[in-house]
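FYI - complex with ketopantoate, inputs then prediction.
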Amino acid sequence: MWHILGVGAIGMRWARKLKLAGESVTLILRDEQKLKEFAEAGSGIRYLSHLGEEFVPFRATSLDDSTLSVDNLLLCTKSYSLIGAYQAVSDRLVDGANLVLLCNGYGVQQQLANSAARHKVWAASTTSGANSAVPFHLTLAGDGRTELGPLSQLAVQADCPLLNLPRHSSSDDIETTLWQKVAVNACINPLTALYQLTNGELMSDSIAFTRMSRVADEIERLAKQLDKPLFNQPLLRVATEVCENTSANRSSMLQDRVNHRPSEIEWITGAILGLAGTAQLQLNENRLLLEEIRALDSTLLPNN
Ligand code: KPL
């Protein structure tokens, strides 16, 4: 039985994947109010795709449920909510529980794993996209691949979960997978959010694309200095290919912007700049983008 905490676009997408694979799934919602909204939405999720609309019912509970006991948990929150979400659920986790972290960014997963030694902590990195502007409604974008690997000592010795799902595979170096993913995200997400471009439009906007090539060059320099492997072709080439393959998509950071949610800039560009600090490297284009997205975030109302 799987529990899912964080019922945004990614959480809803994995709820469906798990159910299709014959798993039993329970959504953990924030509180009684959210549970009420879920009941009003028919106690299920509406999925929209080119095949039409599909309604899938789910069991749900909330963090207020004191009887909750969890042995397999998928944490699908935004990177900045991950630690808080874990803390909110940690006393409901049985010892040795599987904890799969499916979020953007770099560093926060390792931080959580270091404080959750009694659990099997796994990180997942995915190229699957999804869009949700309305709670409990999901527009399915193209399905990608997902890699999973162990982050905590207990997980290293255990069997990797979720490999029964289609297009899921295990990674023997998930740390590198997460690093490579954040490098690509740092090239695409802040610029698409700042200039409000789809991934495809980023390729044809000359100002944004010039900035993207500088971002990529800086990250290449950092990777070289820290001896952290990127790809066997230039990062700009890889990021360009991702944009071409997902050309109609709005990046997750652009979706956050249009839905008035805080961005994940601190765990994407901020994480890159944190590493640059340890290597005493100046990454001016990345620094500028961090400041620009922070300025946008600061215009949000508190509580968003
Ligand atoms: O992972 C993504 C995101 O939007 O966060 C990319 C790769 C940019 C695809 O949209």
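The radius of gyration is 19 Å. Residues 100 and 165 are 14 Å apart (CA to CA).
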